[in-house]
Amino acid sequence: MNGWSAPVLVRAHAAAAGDAPAVIDSAGTCTWAGLDGRCDAVAVAMREAGVGAGAVVAVQAEPSAEAIAALLGVLRAGAIAAPVPVGLTTPERAAVMELLRPALVLDGATPAASPSTGSSWTDVAFDPEAAAVIVLTSGTTGRPKGVVLSGRAMAASAESWLEALPPATGWLLALGLGHVAGLGIVWRGIARRVPVRIIGRTDQTALLAALTADPSMSHVSLVPAQLARLLDASGEAAPPATLRAVLLGGGPIPPALVTRAVRAGWPVIPTYGLSETGSGATALPTDQALDHPDAAGLPLPGVRIRIDEPDASGVGEILIGTEARFTGYLGDPPAPATEPVRTGDLGRLDAAGRLFVVDRRLDRIVRGGENIAPAEVEAVLLAHPAIAEAAVVGCPDATWGQVPVAAVVLREGADDPGGDAFVVHARASLAGFKVPVRVVRLDALPRTAGGKLRREAVRALLAGERSGALARPGGDAIGWRITGTGDRHVLLLHGTLSTAAQLDRLAAALAEPGDLTVHALDRRGSGSSRLAEPRQLDIAVHVDDLIAYLDARGIDRAGLVGVSFGGVLAIETAGRRADRVSAVVAYEPPYGAVAGEEIRRGLAELALAVEAAHRTAGAPAAAETFLRAVAGDAAWHRLPARARAFLAGQGDGALADAAL
Description:
Layout: H1 6-17, E1 21-25, E2 28-31, H2 32-48, E3 56-59, H3 65-76, E4 80-83, H4 90-100, E5 104-106, E6 131-137, E7 145-150, H5 151-164, E8 171-173, H6 180-191, E9 196-198, H7 204-212, E10 219-222, H8 224-234, E11 245-248, H9 255-263, E12 268-274, E13 279-283, H10 286-289, E14 298-299, E15 304-308, E16 316-321, E17 328-329, E18 341-349, E19 355-360, E20 365-367, E21 370-372, H11 374-382, E22 387-397, E23 401-410, H12 421-427, E24 438-441, H13 455-462, E25 467-471, E26 477-483, E27 488-493, H14 504-511, E28 516-521, H15 539-553, E29 558-563, H16 565-576, E30 581-587, H17 597-617, H18 619-631, H19 633-638, H20 641-648, H21 651-657
Parallel strand pairs: 1-9, 3-4, 3-5, 8-9, 8-10, 10-11, 11-12, 23-24, 27-28, 27-29, 29-30
Antiparallel strand pairs: 1-2, 6-7, 7-17, 12-13, 13-14, 15-16, 16-18, 18-19, 20-21, 22-23, 25-26, 26-28
Helix pairs in contact: 1-2, 2-3, 5-6, 7-8, 15-16, 17-18, 17-21, 18-20, 18-21
């Protein structure tokens, strides 16, 4: 069946079993006939918008039946679908759009389909070698790349997986559609005409419930952090009997996690692959996982694995040959179809042909000439009962060139042993040069929309870079900028409809004497700290963010300088966490707690007005409503167009602050 078209197959399923479930999401069940109609509606919309064959169409939406129909409808029109991960910062999204240069951007919503919609659309002839989807990758290490996959590659990947796995009754989708594994699930469901059930990526309770819901989903694909949280939520209970396969991938897989899951009865299948190979290339059968928990598995049917230039221990670069290989990177010359994919990963093969991934060449830490594999150190840290997630990176060192530094996330409900307990734990299992010189506690590790660790973001946070972002629970990130190199630390907090960048001159003035390091933070909803989900926030959330930043930096106490709403945050932080604050300067804080009744009433009305404006007309309306309320209509009208455009982009910040 290699080379089949997903939209064409949806059409056939609609004719053969139109009332059977195709996609199940929070809105209900979409049948094959319903999915087919929605695909037609999108294809018609493409034609009416003048989008022709071969054009790139960006689809930015959380997984849903609508989003899947949008992707398939774009393909039905002969265009190329480019799923864009949700939750990107403004600069990241701008870089993606610059790369894609899409003819059209869809938000995932499809036009209302009707019984007559199909008759108005004639399918475009399917070319299996033509580009079908563009998967974005490597956007966290610089400019993003677009991995171009043909229709034949997507079909070949699906067939290879389905041949290796037990028969599926349905697939549970807990990954983003911007993730190649998430797209793969959709193609596998279509290939065998089984439903795909969509569930939120961070909702483990809902994930457990979905595994037992009717119709049952026999297969699911997870990243290691998801499986760890799922096991915690289940209390190590055995999975439902209908579950046949739990694919595990998306990054280094801790052997201890594999052992834990298999012993609890979960049918875990460790995998290895990448976007350039159309998803997975290897899979380890569950019955081999206990004996080889550190293995990435055997090559999938039709996949060829070779180790290039192996050293004395058999370790070299992993090369992959597969019919599911990518065509090339968007904007680059096509990759020769006969050449294997060079992964950049280091690995070895055992006598049985099992692949063991040792390290990513780019991630390897070299300390005084000694090579350190981050995955090895992370596996040791993850064996500690208090640690749920771990990331190890190399940080610059004047003596050794690089030294390993670790960031860890504690298991929910676990007691932190404090101090150097984690370093002592690592020292018991690792050679001295491999032991992290420092272990930093974080609330969450920075990850991509597909759940892959953003190792360079961890490195930036731990290595003293001048700017970056701190991941927070729920998918949000806190952007930060550092000025100065003094021994004393100050957090600089901006006001509503402002950003940390606008306080650069103030930061420079504070740091000029040389005794201060100034950390300017973008609060959630502002600047580089775009909210994954725009909403009002309790002041306690902002306080927690500041404390998490201090913890990540290893700063015991800091001075707080806040302007306007930033002043409110400075005062509240000092009141709630006096143990972490050395001094406070609050400039013109609208501090409702000490205001008169009239001002309090005005602030309450402002909160309601901003929330209503954001709900009905979006961020620009929220920004305008906020500024008109606090500065007057005349101030708004005096603003030049450039200033209005900037403020319009900060409306999510106004919504977040309005809860004051």
